[in-house]
Amino acid sequence: MAxxxxxxxxxxxxxxxxxxxxxxxxxxxxxxxxxEWMFTRAFxxxxxxxxxxxxxxxxxxxxxxxxxxxxxxxRLAPITTVNLRQAHKKVERGSMMGKIVLEHFxx
Length: 107
Prior knowledge:
Layout: E1 10-13, E2 32-35, H1 40-44, H2 50-64, E3 72-76, H3 81-92, E4 99-102
C-alpha cells in the first residue's frame, strides 16, 4: 500500500491485525491510516451516536436503489437448527465468500 497510495492519501482497515504492523513507510507521504468499527459510537456512547442511524439508513437506501451491492451470497430459510448448523459448517470451512442470511422463523 505504501508504494501505491497518493501523498496525503487515506487507508482504512476494517479487520484486526494478527501481529503489529509497521506504518513508518506511510510517514513520508503523510498518509492517514485509520481503523473503522461500526459500533464505536454506540460502544463509547459518543455525542454523535445518531450518525450511525443516518449512515445505516443511507446505506439501506443505496442498496434498495441498486447503487451498491451487498456481500450476501446465500439465504437459508426458515431459521431452524438444521439450517443454522448448515450455515455454521459453511463458515467453519473458511472458504466461503460473502455472507449467509438465516431468515424467517417457522410458524
